[in-house]
Amino acid sequence: MITYYDDRSVQVTSTAIHVDGRTFPLAEIGMVWHQRGSRSWRVLVGRGALGAALAGPLVAAVLGVALAVWLHRSLTVTVAIVGASVLVGLAVGPLADFLFEHLDRSYARGSRQLEMWARWRGRPVLLLRTGDALRFGQVYRAVQRAMESRRPVPGAQNSIGPSGTISRPRSRP
After folding, report:
1. At 155, is the secondary structure helix, strand, or coil?
2. Label partner for 124 (CA 20 to 30 A): which of 6, 17, 29, 74?
C-alpha cells in the first residue's frame, strides 16, 4: 500500500480515501470532481488591512515631507519634520517581513470554500470541504495520483476531464 497524503483528518492511499473516520475504497469510486464556493469577504478585507498596514507608514512619511516643504518654516523645523517622517517610514521595515508573511499565507489559504466530491456506490458524496486552498490542492492531487495508479480495467483507461474531473469507466461483467 502506498500513502499519497496523510494528515490528522485525511489519508489517501493506493487502496482507499479516509476522511474524518469514513473510508471510501478506490475500487468503489467511479469519478472525483471539485467545486469552488463564493469568495469570503472576510479574507479579502483582511488582505486589504494588511496592505494598508504596509502602506500606511510610507504614506505618512511622504505626507510629512510634503508638509515640511509646504509650510516654509525655518530649516530646523523642516529638518525635524522630515526626520520624524523618515523615522515613521522606516518603522515599517521591521514589520514588513511579518506582514508580508501573513499576506502570503492568506493567498496560500485562498478566499473560497473548496469541495471535493466523489461518485461512490453510484451516488455523489462530499469527501472534503475546506477553505485552505494549499491543503485542498495537496489532497486533490493525492487523489488524482491514487486514481491514476489503480490497476487498469481491461479495455478502459482512466481519464481526467476538462475541469480536473477524474473518471474511470467501469468494465461490464
Report:
1. coil
2. 6
- Residue 110: count of CB within 10 angstroms of its CB: 20
Contact status, residue 11 vs residue 18, Cβ threshold 8 Å: yes
Q: In terms of DSSP bridges, do strands 16-19 and 10-13 run parallel, antiparallel, or are they unpaired?
A: antiparallel
Q: Which helix (H) or strand (E) holds 130?
A: strand 123-130
Q: What is the amino acid identity at position 127? A: L
List the pLDDT tens digit at each of the 173 positions of the chain: 899 999 999 999 999 999 999 999 999 998 899 998 777 778 778 878 888 777 777 777 778 778 877 887 788 887 888 788 778 777 777 777 788 888 777 777 777 888 999 999 989 999 999 888 889 999 999 999 999 987 654 544 444 444 555 544 444 33
Residue ranges per domain, the chain? Answer: 3-39+111-167, 41-109
**35, containing H or E segment:** strand 29-39
